[in-house]
Design a protein that fits this description.
Blueprint lengths: L10 H11 L13 H5 L4 H6 L7 H14 L13 E4 L13 H13 L10 H7 L3 H5 L2 H11 L5 H14 L15 H12 L3 E9 H12 L6 E13 L2 E12 L5 H9 L6 E4 L5 H8 L6 E6 L20 H9 L2 E4 H4 L10
Parallel strand pairs: 1-2, 1-5, 2-3, 5-6, 6-7
Antiparallel strand pairs: 3-4
Helix pairs in contact: 1-8, 5-8
């Protein structure tokens, strides 16, 4: 049985939490071995053939697209500088159920700093959190966001980084019992490597924050910090103990979700992508923006339909809802990737 908190959050509440509360600055994975080394294919042939993808129309669409835009002399040829591929993170490159991993961290952070805030004992949101009464917690959204804001700000970015490293080293997913940074999708690791091998520049465009992803994402995905676009929190320069410090403020600077994603792409890349990969309604506008470009383009949508190997959810889900984007994908001929039917495997082999 999945934890009950999967069902109690409204999509509006989760969006508020991601926008106003999921203001992480996750600065690293504390794994002793580089995740790329153990997760990405090591043989060029494995990358070229996308070996974790079954030979289905979805895989064929990807390979055909890459062939068309990289073949010199072809009317569909795209110069390397314009081969921009953008990927959502949560639910597209790694798992996102039963709650966004950032949110799990932030709830744990509230509990961790609670001894420093004795006034919280009378806070209804804190009481519900301690009691694991997620139904009551869902009715205390404003109070919860205030707790999260306090617990996840006020410290320097370096101190916050250390906190997250410790959490990542010990936290385990409730269903799989594995570190969260191991719950990346093997077929997507291969796809990222395949695109880069064919002259593409790969970007993450996520509703999560840039602080959360920048350090560990390069290790896991091979995507450097400057190619990560996300929501951002206000960070203020201060002098602390005579030394410069960047200090987290409990205020959102930019929300890179839904209609914010094309804005983030424009601001940070300055070129329209020719490939976009998402999994939810939060990616709809990014996919529309990419599909509206001239020439050859490819819009991909991952459907989580594999309860045995991961999770199965779509239109009714409170996390990663796939409804309007699915309808548009069908209407406009976007490529819908079935996790169950198109992927040979989901996660990399567990670390030994």
């Amino acid at each position: 049985m999945q934890p009950c908190y999967q069902t109690v959050w409204s999509s509006r509440a989760l969006r508020l939490i991601r926008a106003a509360g999921v203001v992480l600055s996750l600065a690293g994975c504390a794994a002793q071995h580089d995740a790329v080394t153990r997760a990405q294919p090591t043989a060029q042939q494995s990358i070229a053939t996308l070996s974790s993808w079954r030979d289905t129309p979805a895989k064929q669409a990807i390979q055909s697209f890459v062939s068309d835009v990289t073949r010199e002399g072809s009317p569909t040829f795209v110069p390397p500088a314009d081969r921009i591929a953008v990927f959502d993170n949560d639910g597209t490159l790694w798992s996102e159920q039963p709650l966004y991993f950032q949110f799990v961290f932030m709830l744990d952070q509230v509990k961790a700093v609670a001894p420093q805030h004795p006034e919280w004992k009378d806070n209804p949101a804190f009481k519900a959190l301690v009691a694991k009464d997620y139904g009551a917690l869902a009715n205390q959204q404003k109070a919860l966001l205030q707790l999260i804001g306090v617990a996840n700000s006020g410290m320097s970015v370096d101190d916050y980084d250390k906190t997250i490293r410790v959490w990542l080293d010990s936290a385990r997913h409730p269903k799989f019992g594995r570190p969260y940074t191991e719950l990346v999708y093997q077929p997507q690791l291969e796809l990222l490597a395949y695109l880069r091998a064919n002259g593409f520049k790969t970007f993450i465009v996520s509703g999560g924050t840039i602080e959360f992803m920048r350090v560990w994402a390069e290790r896991v995905y091979g995507i450097p910090p400057e190619q990560i676009i996300g929501s951002s929190q206000v960070v203020q320069y201060e002098m602390r103990n005579g030394r410069p410090a960047l200090v987290r403020q409990p205020k959102i600077d930019f929300v890179d979700d839904g209609p914010g994603k094309p804005v983030g792409i424009y601001r940070n890349i300055g070129r329209k992508p020719i490939l976009a990969f998402g999994n939810s309604d939060g990616d709809l506008q990014m996919l529309q923006y990419t599909a509206s470009g001239p020439g050859r383009h490819l819009a991909l949508l991952l459907h989580h339909d594999d309860a045995a190997r991961e999770f199965a959810y779509d239109r009714a889900s409170k996390v990663g809802k796939l409804d309007k984007a699915w309808d548009e994908a069908v209407a406009d001929g976007w490529t819908v990737v079935s996790m169950k039917n198109d992927w040979q495997t989901v996660f990399p082999a567990p670390k030994q």
